[in-house]
Each structure stands twice: as structure tokens, then as C-alpha cells.
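Figure S7 source data.
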Amino acid sequence: MITRVDPRLRREAEEFGLKFTCESCAHFDPEPRRCANGYPTAPHCAVDLAVAETLLFCKGFELG
Ligand code: SF4
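C-alpha cells for the predicted iron/sulfur cluster complex:
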């Protein structure tokens, strides 16, 4: 699901410590930086909400 990043999302993500990137996911293998489920990680890695205009949430995300 693609979500537009607006000031409210930025504020709430900061306030509640929202985790959503591969780096915070239980399925992420940090070496060699790949998804254990074989999903493409590029849209979900190292997302900076301060500059991102949209956010593509991964349906497979599980907090690691
Ligand atoms: S399941 Fe999704 S969020 Fe988790 S590592 Fe794979 S691509 Fe990234």
C-alpha cells in the first residue's frame, strides 16, 4: 500500500516510534541486506520520512 507522507504522518511516526523499514523487520538479513522471504527490499530500506513523499508499506513486515 502506498501512503502519502504528510506532516501528520511524520509527527505521529516520530511520536510513536513507528517501525516499518526492512531494518526493523524480523525477515531482514542484514548481511547481505536481503529479505529472507525473497521480497524486493529497495522500497522498504532506509526510508527517511523527513524527505520521503510517499511510503510503500510491506505486507510481510513483522517487527523484529
Ligand atoms: S518482509 Fe518486507 S519489510 Fe520484511 S524484510 Fe522482507 S521486504 Fe523487508
